Amino acid sequence: MTGDPIRKAEPPVLGTTAGSGAGGMFYASVAWVNAAGQEGQASDASSMTAAAGQYMTVSATGAPANATGFNVYAGSTPNSMMLQNAAPVAPGSFYTYVPGMVSGGRAPGCGQSVQFRRRLTRTILRG
């Protein structure tokens, strides 16, 4: 069990902004983060093709009440997506993905880990 569960994020909304990028096909997913810094399960990936001279923007929608921000995972293939931001992005904001800017980030996780366990008590009713 966990004290402050945070749900799986919806697939991100992708867009573009002007930049000096070479363009190409990009993938991104997001994961909500709670006040304790615990990350929920990453969303399914969204993809888009950005033209030369554009960067991909990533935003998350449907923030749960306990979310303080979201993490962005992006890459040129679904299997190469890595964490892009150093601190969670504020809900309602967007992140601009610059290919090659981050190297060595971690891959998307499976959600929160167990914080505590609760024993299931069994009672035999006699009667």
Shape: elongated
N-to-C span: 34 Å
Largest sheet: 4 strands, antiparallel
Number of strands: 7
Rg over C-alpha atoms, rounded to the nearest angstrom? 18 Å
* Class from secondary-structure proportions: mainly beta
Highlighted features:
7 strands; three-stranded antiparallel β-sheet; about 130 residues; four-stranded antiparallel β-sheet; single chain; mainly beta; about 35% strand
Polypeptide structure, described:
Helix content is 0%, strand content 34%. The chain is mainly β. It has one domain. It has a 4-stranded antiparallel β-sheet with strand order 3-2-5-6, with no helix packed on it. Strands 1-4-7 form a 3-stranded antiparallel β-sheet, with no helix packed on it. The radius of gyration is 18 Å and the shape is elongated. The two termini are 34 Å apart.
Topology:
Layout: E1 13-18, E2 24-34, E3 46-50, E4 54-59, E5 67-75, E6 82-83, E7 94-97
Brief write-up:
The protein has 127 residues and is an all-beta fold. It is 0% helix and 34% strand.
